[in-house]
């Protein structure tokens, strides 16, 4: 997926209800946190944070249509299949691990369902939606998969029902569903290549970038609870600011970005999941100090200088961390590039 996938009409807000039977499709990109600081613990159980996020072209896919039947009919599957994913993770013969890592709810607890139910209620939409969600983004990885899916489904519903993509209610619904969700809506009329988020993560300021960044993502065979990682974290006495990362992003200077990167949730996540510690130390020993945890984990990522370097690092890390099936938990290593959100909502 590249930046051109951002639809112009999606940004112009031209909307009228689509004919009955129309099917729309969009991608839901993952995100990485180049910087994440804890500024304070709030009385409502959340933290004031200062974070810089970039969307990447590792995406889930959503296909949606309206139904005359009220409610949300949701199907969830993995790309290319749950079996292939379990084999790549080395858990094909471990039903408990498959459930823990690949078990995605298809009921009202799925953030896609939560978002669509709120759309139906907030806009008095007649009937309901059918949504087919095809997963690629690992869950419990700190990559914003569920949040991105929710924002993508909300944008598809808006397109189907002739609701402007700029309607403030869309942002409100996203902010109600989760702290990461508003980021995936983009920012006003402009596609978003990077954002600095404060509050609990819902207050967004676009960050200028010099162009796409090349990345290697390593997802270990473990799913981490965001709430548990935050609960195990400490607010520092002197929180760092994201200004250095923001300036380096504008320059597109990978070395400068790398030396300004930081994630305050890394230490608690490494204690909760020692696999993360093993991966980080191994990649750092390989000379990639730009490698760090994203969000609340468990995935880690390294910034590199080119797609060639990304391919080379990824093949080295696959040899080290990926297992054949049934050889015990491994990891999934993928190259990626930063992109922009939201992606186009296309009519099938
Ligand atoms: C770690 C990040 O992914 C970084 O982008 C986000 O801060 C988390 O965003 P998210 O997964 O959408 O989180 P939410 O679903 O809103 O909150 C899940 C739980 O994480 C904790 N949480 C989340 C956000 C925040 N600013 N402070 C918190 O302490 C709270 O215990 C909350 O109940
Ligand atoms: N659409 C969805 N995709 C994946 N998981 C979902 C979805 N809806 C609800 N979930 C549940 O939410 C849990 C967390 O999923 P995920 O990690 O993708 O969420 P997130 O909060 O957006 O991302 P992050 O890991 O950055 O916090 C999953 O383990 C799953 O049980």
Automatic annotation (TrEMBL):
Q: Write the Enzyme Commission number(s) for this entry.
A: 2.7.1.148
Provide one Gene Ontology biological process annotation: terpenoid biosynthetic process
Q: Tell me any Pfam family this protein matches.
A: GHMP_kinases_N
Q: So where's the catalytic machinery, residue-wise?
A: 31, 180
Q: Which Gene3D superfamilies match?
A: 3.30.230.10, GHMP kinase, C-terminal domain
Per its UniProt record, what InterPro entries does this chain match? Answer: GHMP_kinase_C_dom, GHMP_kinase_C_sf, GHMP_kinase_N_dom, IspE, Ribosomal_Su5_D2-typ_SF, Ribsml_uS5_D2-typ_fold_subgr
For the keyword Kinase, the answer is yes
Name of the protein: 4-diphosphocytidyl-2-C-methyl-D-erythritol kinase
Q: Where is the GHMP kinase N-terminal domain?
A: 110-185
Which pathway is this protein assigned to?
Isoprenoid biosynthesis; isopentenyl diphosphate biosynthesis via DXP pathway; isopentenyl diphosphate from 1-deoxy-D-xylulose 5-phosphate: step 3/6
Sites where the protein binds ATP: 138-148
Q: Which gene encodes it?
A: ispE
Q: Where is this region: Disordered?
A: 1-23
> Is ATP-binding tagged as a keyword?
yes
Name the source's superkingdom: Bacteria
